[in-house]
Amino acid sequence: MGEFIGALDLGTTSNRFVIFDRRGRIVGVDQKEHRQIFPQPGWVEHDPMEIWHNSGEVIRGALAKTGLSGRDIAAIGITNQRETTVVWDKRNGQPYMNAIVWQCTRTDELCRRLSEEGGQDRFRAKTGLPISTYFSGPKLRWTLDHVEAAHIGAQKGEALFGTIESWIIWWLTGGPEGGAHVTDVSNASRTMLMDLRTLAWDEEILKILKIPAEMLPRIVPSIDADTWGVTRPAGPLGAAVPVCGALGDQQAALVGQTCFAVGEAKNTYGTGCFLLLNTGTEAVASRHGMLTTVGYQIRGQKPVYCLEGSVAIAGALVQWLRDNLGFIQHAAEIEPLARGVEDNGGAYIVPAFSGLFAPYWRSDARGVIVGLTRYINRQHIARAVLEAVAYQTLDVVEAMAKDSGVALSSLRVDGGMVANELLMQFQADILGVPVIRPKITETTALGAASAAALACGFAHSLDELKRNWAMDKRWEPTMAAEHRQKGIAGWKKAVEKTLNWID
What we know:
By secondary structure, this protein is of the alpha/beta class. It is built from 16 helices and 22 strands. α13 links the parallel β20 and β21 (about 435-440).
């Protein structure tokens, strides 16, 4: 067995291959961006063949940089942008059209029709999801409706559907020459087609969406010792390497952060925020605007479920301050600017630029800056921007606690904004729990590598993964309870001011 694990990270804007050693340390990485294709306003596509070719390039690139060969890799794990949909011809591997990306809103009309017939939550009891353009099922139906070759291929049993990890696993393990057509439970739980409890495609939903079951991949555990296949020696690795771990990107970050216990949560601070809370082996239904999703499953064990909450505008608010208002020239300048004052001076910013996401779900809301007085200066506004990210996270955490009855014990953090230590301390203060930043902030790739390491016996237990995980910094709450309550009350009042703006 090789001494290293490979993680193929198939992101929205780029692909990366990251090589880890036995201790979970990065020894090599290569990355390549792919095109973002916008055929119409609101439509987003990727070229699936470009993603496959780039995957080969980054695998070869990372091996070349480290002087390793495919024989040095014990196994491969895959993590991917979720919900992005590919439909292809199994005879030759040619996609019938470009991949429809998770951000794409072309299924708006179809989703509206589905909601009118039975309400936005008609599938939620089974799938944990509302009807939304976000998920893969409607994207697949749209493809069958609008691409004649795909429609004919599906009728003849020649068309295959998959999310990006399915597409790449199929090619890695042989493509038209017997490639494995699989999807892991975490990705399947984002299609709006899988029953969360049985972990099987739901016949009733397939019937309503007129989707032939034959074109769907086999649903497999995320961490699977019965490998789905090995890479072809003629492929980019140049060796037969087991492919045995797969996770959607946010779930991969949960595993990379070793949030294996009920009540452990991770928040990824990017353009927006994705917060996942481990709720254990029972799927918790949300009544407060969260999604219920599969976190991960180890072969032979029950799946572990999560509640997921998303904040639309986090890092994007700092970009807005930089690009639209010209307060700063570089994003990193916001922290020293905000440190120039003790608090927000009574000013709050609620970035409801296109409505409010979880837990409010108000499309009539628009952004506000409130509490302005002659006393407020640039520094207070910079501080209010950072605080808005932490308060929005608090809103999601409070909604999750109401849904699950699970109290947050600590928050593990990753993503670009975790370098901002003022934000991290304020987040701990407002949540009233420790905030913990790991040494390896590449948690998505680490999660995929961890899944493959467990599956192939390279790592022997979740405890071993926990031992490999290393903390970089921990922030304890230090704010007085009275001060915290006052801040939260001001935030809630500010949120009210955003509502009913659009008639």
